[in-house]
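U., I forgot to send this yesterday:
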Amino acid sequence: MINNFKNDEAYISTKWLLRLISSRGLEIQHLLKIINRGMKTTHFLAILQNDSYLCDCCMGMNLGIPCRHYFQALTRMPTLSFHIGLVRAKWYQDHNLDIQTVSSISLENVPRNNSALRSTSLTTKSSHKSNPLDSSIQRSAVPPTQTIGAREVYHKTHAALKPLINGIHMKEDLDELLQDLDELRYVLSVH
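Result:
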């Protein structure tokens, strides 16, 4: 089953979640049962060291962003705090952000001390905090994708296409260019 995270009934078993955590030598501080009364669904959320977490919905591990169950726990647990490291670095505008310089904040918007975060190698990169189970992530890896603004896309593509556009003066020329671009798109999609 592919989970697009709209279906709140999709999850891995709690037994499997606990087995994954213990097999990696991680320590559970809290195991929370999150109940959505409206949808009548239940999820289990394991709070690990330094407020990293794993949820049985697997959204944090798969997408690299905290799930709704984590935020539900954050609103109910005054000792739980949010750290930007829970969001995978590929979602940052500044991919070179040093997450160790950013303080965790609680629901009351109070910065928390990050001394434990600095001393634990598990959470030195955001990917380790957003997916504590992933041990294959390199510490100096550059994010594979970077989100760029529509304006930048427009200007760079316009600059690249400008030499082709300059010779267009008649409808036939435009139709030929558009056909060539469609063929190029087809060739690229096949490879």
